[in-house]
Amino acid sequence: MTTTESTEESPTAADSGASATEAFRATRQHADGEVSAERVDAVVRAVLAGVHQAIRDERVTYPEFQAAKQWLMDLGEGGEWPLFLDVFVEHVVEDVAAESQRGTKGSILGPYYLPDQQRLPSVTALPSRPDERGTPLVFAGQVRDVDGNPVPRAELDLWHADEQGYYSGFAPGIPDGNLRGVVVTDGHGRFEVSTIQPAPYQIPTDGPTGKLIEAAGWHPWRPAHLHLIVRAPGYRPITTQLYFEGGKWLDSDIAEATKPELVLHPEPTGDGGLRSEYDFVLERA
Ligand code: DHB
Ligand code: FE
């Protein structure tokens, strides 16, 4: 593996799994309120009915049941519940949430969001290492409301993986806040951010989620993507991801979180870099 100045250790599943669990605990929205007994009854019954049906359909054996129990214990001990749930389950929760959402399409949050990153002006560069590798990317556009009016001083909370597919704050050896920032749009809702094009993301292969993927004969990849939460006072925030036209794994994302409306069409800038425009549309809260 090639290493950059500040990346000396090679990230492992244990690192990102455990840090994703920690980050979830730390950033979790305060008590989401009591869940009623009716709701627990209805949802848990439905989940269990699905599991029971799978056991009957597949004639699941005792050795298979015990192997599943062992794997679930490993998943918890490795701190990989956030990774596993965000890859295999979150996209359906997002689909349901999206039924009542207008404006820009949403996508999954994933396990690697960190709040309270550096605030940046409308024309800016994301914090990066002096020797940050990767194709330079300028990402520019405008935030508008559903009637087409610009939304001044909207926030683009932006984070993405580096050129090796690793996220700061989760993989070791990357400075805090690297390739993360909260970009504030100008008086016309416009922004222009310089960064690098991220690499596709590979689910860590050495942990329980990776072992499951291998055991099932699946591939462990997500296409390269930018993560965003776009928000402004009085508007419903949008959590989404943007992908790259022609990107590897775009048609077979393991997390099933791509949508055709969320694909960027970058143009070469002539100096080895790329430029991509994308406008966001927010609806009133
Ligand atoms: C996971 C990682 C991501 O970068 C992402 O966007 C979604 C899910 C994961 O490892 O669970
Ligand atoms: Fe991601």
Explain what the structure shows.
The protein is globular, with a radius of gyration of 20 Å. It has helices spanning 13-27, 37-58, 62-77, 81-88, 90-98, 208-216; strands spanning 119-120, 123-125, 136-145, 155-160, 180-184, 190-196, 201-202, 221-222, 225-231, 238-244, 263-264, 267-268, 274-277, 280-282. The model is unreliable at 1-9 (pLDDT under 50). The strands form 3 sheets. A 6-stranded mixed β-sheet has the order 1-5-4-9-10-11, with no helix packed on it. Strands 2, 3, 6, 12, 13 and 14 form a 6-stranded mixed β-sheet that branches. A two-stranded antiparallel ribbon has the order 7-8. It has one domain (10-285): Aromatic compound dioxygenase (Protocatechuate 3,4-Dioxygenase, subunit A). With 285 residues, it is α/β, with parallel strands linked by helices. Strand 9 and strand 10 form a beta hairpin. It starts with 12 loop residues before the first helix and ends with a strand. It has 6 helices and 14 strands. The protein binds 3,4-dihydroxybenzoic acid and fe (iii) ion.
Draw up the topology in text.
Layout: H1 13-27, H2 37-58, H3 62-77, H4 81-88, H5 90-98, E1 119-120, E2 123-125, E3 136-145, E4 155-160, E5 180-184, E6 190-196, E7 201-202, H6 208-216, E8 221-222, E9 225-231, E10 238-244, E11 263-264, E12 267-268, E13 274-277, E14 280-282
Parallel strand pairs: 1-5, 2-6, 3-13, 3-14, 10-11
Antiparallel strand pairs: 3-6, 4-5, 4-9, 7-8, 9-10, 12-13
3,4-dihydroxybenzoic acid binds next to helix 4.
